[in-house]
Amino acid sequence: MKRVIPFCLCFLCILSAYTESFPFGKKYYYPTESGNLIINEKSIVKNDVLSESTIHFDEFLTILKTEKEKYIVLNCDFDKLSFLTIVKQISNSEKHVKNWEIYYSTDTNPLLSTSPKLQGFKVVNADNYIVETRKDGSKIEYIPDRYFSLNENPWAVKHDSERKVISLNTDIYRVQGFKYYSVNYIVIVNGFVSAEKDYLYEQNSRAKRIRISYDDVSFITELQDTGNFQYLKLPKTIDPKKNITLDLEILDAYPGTKYSDIVISGVYYVDAQM
User: What is the pTM (predicted TM-score) of this model?
Assistant: First the structure.
């Protein structure tokens, strides 16, 4: 019992620090059309409509509940930008993971196309990913169809795969002649984040040490064991219009309570016209 107490105290200190730093009362805006969100300790104001809510900070995820909806909340701040995303279950999704990601930022630029938002990288290729066969014979491919975001299936790979690499780039439609924000950071959502089945995060393994490689750059870093946004500053800026391939390789993992498969749910960058 004596060995357990320091760990519990440490965890409670970390949880308390995150709770205290959560952006209660901060107003966020939906970047591509009219919309706003404020999360208070016992209420939310969504599009200027107040409703009662509860918020729970567990070891891995932040869960927000209203009378009608349940959300997973993710947030991060860097370079004077503040982002917040709420994820809810959507029943009519064709994806196996029925997430609907609603993203906000504190930017209030009246030119909506210039408002920064977190854009999922386009998935170019993955050396390995899990394919699951259902009872009806249909298959679930655990790799995002297009963009590496919470609206897509996550990337899942077996822990004993020889290579655990996914290749990404910034290839989306862009207006000719416009300049875009340089990619200075990547934002990662670790683990299996599902609004429908939040227990899947703990049950599956999560990436721990990863290697990022692009151009002549290669570095190793350690991810936190959290389903919240976590950002990495890149040592060399990426021009989003050049569609440079970025490889993310999993080197080590946090163990799941039930499955050894390693899961990452999203990899983003800040995108906006300048």
Answer: 0.90
